[in-house]
Design brief:
single chain, 625 residues, 2 domains, 25 helices, 2 strands
């Protein structure tokens, strides 16, 4: 058995299954479900056989350098696969749970309007899951990380004719993207710390890690904190905890596979994967442990007072993941892996049987009613007991906290930029950009004393474009063009930062240009067809009548935001490689621009194409449905 080919097949099998599912007619439920079940069944059998072979061989560590997508003299973007004990545990859990969910969903999703869409999204998620757990470097991991975010958005918003699922899908995607600022900055700082795209295999070299951190301890702490932010957002730890119960708006099988068992544990996976890097940094270990402890202490009482079974399971799982953060911080990696397996299987079971359990309890309470028994809380002072109850009932206002600390400030800044109308963008911003481009091409036009300040200034102007796009309510085309202009400003800013091959800029902007033109054409087409229902003040649900246009515009959004379907994904990493190690402000502005730009694009897509249809001749669910 050749390990290289088998490990690569763990990505290839779900990818082929996903492509084949797209070719099946959406009315052929039997073929769709059989194809999905065959894909995950083949994956589970292959994983089981390989794990037996791997254990018999003494559990060796494999690092497989698959393909270099881009190479220059001082930079390379390599797809790298890595297999160790952490990968083995996550691979087995993912294969087993996905097989169960797929089997269960064949009947649970019967006669649903989006039957094919559901199974295609599940296979796409499984592809991203395997890509993430097998990733051997940050670049490969971020490819799977992005797939998980997009598939999460699609599964939460599966009932796209309803208001709440779509709204919560956008909210969860937004928090995911905010957390991605951490992983982008960690990748940038790692480039400068190691002067290469470091592999996870090399992180296990204690002498190498210790040598680099001895002279750059501050950078090491910065990378560890960025990784903690990304992990906390992915695993719904404080202060990002509010998204997990909102994510339960999707179908029960997707809630089980995503937020009960697999996706929600990727924060723990990221910490386990990078543990050799930050284990000697006591600041990082204390922060990780405190985040886990605080989340466990807050999530446990919230779970006790929930009125719905899915949110109760969500908060219970959140508390257990907080304990896993503490276990990883204390160096108990094996215990954390065992804890992950137990929690994943338990939450999957609880979510899948939850409809039957609720039905049984509703019927049973009329025949076997028992008065409330005394609990430990009854021994506390009443004021403390009631205060804790009210706080838990309000979920400690975590949702309001996120809005007040992050999203509301961004919207307020955007509303102060209302002077960026289509006319002013055309006659003020574009000429200003042309002047900057001319100054780049003509070296003598910029005084040497001013040149060092231009990268941060231009990057800030790009961030301003994104703030306005994020809060735009009236003109969808304006929001779209502002996100594209943000990429142009970033390219200009980094071009002033240092001299490098301009073909790298063209690679970065190639995907933005192509996807931007496609997306703008889609918007113009929709505006001509629906002139009265074309703004961002509400959800219009145009996907009912424009399915093909909706899919094309979604792909355009993914292309502009740097999803790994165009060269822009590699270009973003290239751009960060040209930001110097002491330019934290420039790196932060660029990372925030990428993240907020993605949120703005998904917001445009959701408000135009998803939600209850604005036309009265379509069935419209209640707003609370």
């Amino acid at each position: 058995m050749e390990p290289n080919y088998v490990i690569a097949s763990f990505v290839l099998i779900p990818f082929l299954g996903f492509l084949l599912t797209l070719l099946v007619n959406r009315t052929n439920e039997n073929l769709i479900s059989r194809l999905a079940l065959l894909t995950v069944g083949l994956q589970f059998g292959t994983a089981l056989g390989f794990l037996g072979f791997w254990i018999a061989k003494g559990m060796p560590v494999y690092n497989i350098r698959e393909i270099a997508l881009y190479q220059t003299a001082g930079y390379e973007f390599v797809i790298d696969f890595y297999f160790d004990a952490v990968t083995a545990v996550y691979l087995f859990a993912g294969a087993f749970v996905t097989l169960l969910i797929t089997r269960y969903s064949r009947y649970y999703m019967h006669l649903e309007e989006g039957y094919k869409r559901f199974f295609a999204t599940i296979l796409f998620f499984y592809l991203g899951y395997n890509f993430t757990v097998l990733a051997g470097n940050f670049e490969s991991l971020f490819i799977g990380w992005e797939m998980l975010g997009v598939s999460s958005f699609l599964l939460i918003g599966f009932y796209r004719e309803r208001y709440l699922p779509v709204r919560n899908a956008v909210k969860v995607f937004s928090i995911y993207r905010i957390g991605d600022v951490g992983i982008l900055l960690a990748m940038w700082a790692s480039h400068h710390l190691w002067h290469e795209n470091i592999t996870f295999l090399k992180l296990h070299n204690y002498e190498l890690v210790h040598e680099h951190l001895m002279g750059h301890s501050g950078v090491g702490v910065f990378i560890a904190i960025c990784l903690l932010i990304a992990a906390a957002a992915k695993s719904a730890q404080l202060p990002f905890s509010s998204w997990l119960p909102r994510a339960m708006e999707g179908p029960t099988p997707s809630s089980a596979i995503f937020y009960g068992s697999l996706s929600v544990h990727f924060g723990v996976f990221l910490l386990l994967r990078t543990h050799p890097f930050w284990e000697q940094q006591w600041v990082a270990r204390v922060l990780i442990g405190l985040v886990g402890l605080a989340t466990a202490l807050i999530a446990f009482p919230i779970a006790r007072v929930q009125s719905t079974v899915k949110t109760q399971i969500a908060y219970a799982s959140m508390a257990q993941i907080g304990l896993m953060f503490m276990e990883v911080a204390m160096g108990w990696d094996t215990l954390a892996l065992v804890h992950f397996m137990g929690n994943a299987f338990l939450r999957t079971y609880q979510l899948l049987v939850s409809p039957s359990v609720v039905s049984y309890l509703i019927r049973d309470q009329f025949y076997h009613f028992e008065p409330r028994t005394h609990t430990v809380e009854d021994t506390w002072p009443k004021k403390l007991e009631y205060s804790l109850y009210i706080l838990s009932l309000k979920e400690w206002n975590l949702d309001r906290l996120m809005n007040r600390l992050i999203f509301s400030p961004f919207k307020k800044i955007g509303h102060r930029l209302d002077f960026l109308t289509p006319r002013n963008v055309l006659f003020v911003v574009l000429p200003l950009y042309a002047v900057g481009l001319l100054a780049l091409l003509q070296d003598g036009l910029v005084p040497p004393a001013i040149r060092p300040f231009l990268p941060v200034s231009f990057s800030f102007l790009g961030l301003v474009m994104v703030f306005k796009a994020f809060s735009e309510r009236k003109y969808p085309e304006l929001g779209w063009l502002l996100v594209i202009m943000n990429h142009l400003w970033i390219a200009l800013a980094v071009s002033f930062n240092e001299q490098y091959d301009r073909t790298q800029t063209f690679l970065y902007l190639s995907g933005v240009a192509f996807a931007g033109l496609v997306g703008y054409a889609c918007l113009r087409r929709l505006k001509r067809a629906e002139p009265l229902h074309f703004d961002l003040n509400q959800y219009y649900g145009h996907v009912y009548e424009y399915r093909g246009l909706s899919l094309l515009f979604l792909l355009a959004c993914l292309g502009v935001m740097g999803f790994p379907i165009t060269g822009t994904f590699i270009g973003e990493d290239l751009i960060f490689s040209h930001i110097h190690e002491n330019q934290f402000v420039l790196a932060f502005f660029n990372a925030l621009s990428f993240i907020l730009g993605g949120i703005a694009l998904i917001r445009i897509y959701s408000r135009l194409f998803l939600g209850p249809h604005v036309k009265t001749y379509h069935e419209t669910p209640l707003r609370s449905a």
